[in-house]
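User: I'm preparing a small set of examples for a lab meeting where we compare how different chains pack in three dimensions. I only have the primary sequence for this one, and I'd like the structure in token form so I can line it up with the others. Please keep the answer compact; I'll paste it straight into my notes.
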Amino acid sequence: MDANYLVLCGMVWAQFGQEDAGRELIRALASSDEMMRVLARTLLERADGGSKELIGQALAEEEISVSMASLCGFEQGQSSKPRMGQQHAVPGGFGVSSGAFEA
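Assistant: Understood. Below is the structure token output for the 103-residue chain.
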């Protein structure tokens, strides 16, 4: 995983709420490269709205640790509503399903 790909995932997650893009950011939190972990945390923090839910979901599914979730500003007990299946409008008038992003 490289920084350009991660930034692209962050943009897609922040702008369109594509869950697969957000999941790539979650996976990067466990990277052996500290810069990738910091970049992933930063991109998740900058994406308002769904990041807390996505982090909560990843924590519930044991994809990340409690300490990693707390580094991302997630507090246990917060809601972790899934975003799957939502439709999002993208430039050009196309509707994109949350599962449509493939890396």
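A couple of notes for your slides: Residues 78-103 have pLDDT under 50 and may be disordered. The beta strands are 87-90, 94-97.

User: Perfect, thanks.
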